[in-house]
Amino acid sequence: MSNSRKLTPRNEPIQKRALARRANILHVTALALEEVGQDDLTTILVAKRAGVSVGTLYHYFPNKYAILHALGEQWLGEVEAALDELEAFNIESLSLRRFVEMCVDRSLAAYTAQRGLLPLVQAMYGVPELKDLNNTYNELIVSAMARMFTRLEVAERPAELSRLGRAYHEVSHAMLLLAVNQSKTESIKTLGDLKYLSLCLLERAKSQF
Fold first, then answer.
1. Alpha carbon distances (Å) from 54 to 4, 122, 178
2. How far apart are CA 66 and CA 122, in angstroms?
3. CB of 192 within 8 A of CB of 186?
């Protein structure tokens, strides 16, 4: 009889602890961003709130921009998941109004999921070390919206689809950031405005198609 048996890798608990610690560092960084902003965020503050030494923190992230970059990647993952979900839906069966409502509502969930989003986005836009995230984010949204606009027969020419995708992105991004930082009453009004503006944009484009 064989005495061999399936063994759990000895480093698995270590890997799990490392992943949990990394996730906690990102979580406390997001909370700290809400309180102190990007300029006053330091690795000392993050290490203290994460309950680790600065040396241990540097084992995971060499500086605060590396932490912010990982936080930005995490948020982009949420955004990409939202876009994938929308593109997988049978959007051709929807009216433009219903499509816009779905887009705004699903995007709002992705924006709401990330704590400290406003200062994070500001850092992505203004900090050289995070510029690649901003560029990736913009291209992700514009490309996905252009593909969906094609399926909705809003426009046909690639240049026009890209223009519409960028217009939708610029308007929705600004207003979603506003909405997630407002009171519930004001947020509802802002989201209603966003849906109205987005619908007007698409209806006008479709009427000229």
1. 43, 25, 34
2. 15
3. no
10 Å CB burial of residue 182 (0-12, 13-18, 19+) is: middle
Q: How many Cβ atoms sit within 10 Å of the Cβ of residue 161?
A: 21
**30-76, pLDDT tens digit by residue?**
999 999 999 999 999 999 999 999 999 999 999 999 999 999 999 99
Note whether 58 and 43 are within 8 A (CB). yes
Cβ(163)–Cβ(185) under 8 Å?
A: no
Instruction: Report, in angstroms and rounded to the nearest whole number, the Rg of the chain calculated over CA atoms.
Output: 21
- Nearest-angstrom CA–CA distance, 137 and 144: 11
Residue 155 · residue 209 · CB < 8 Å: yes
The residues, ordered by sequence, that sit 6+ positions from 159 with a Cβ below 8 Å of its Cβ are none
**pLDDT tens column, 177-200:** 999 999 999 999 999 999 999 999
CA angle 122, 126, 131 (to 5 degrees): 105
Domains of the chain: 64-207 (1.10.357.10)
User: What residues contact residue 125 under an 8 Å CB cut-off, 6+ apart?
Assistant: 134
Reference 80, options 114, 30, 37; nearest CA is: 114
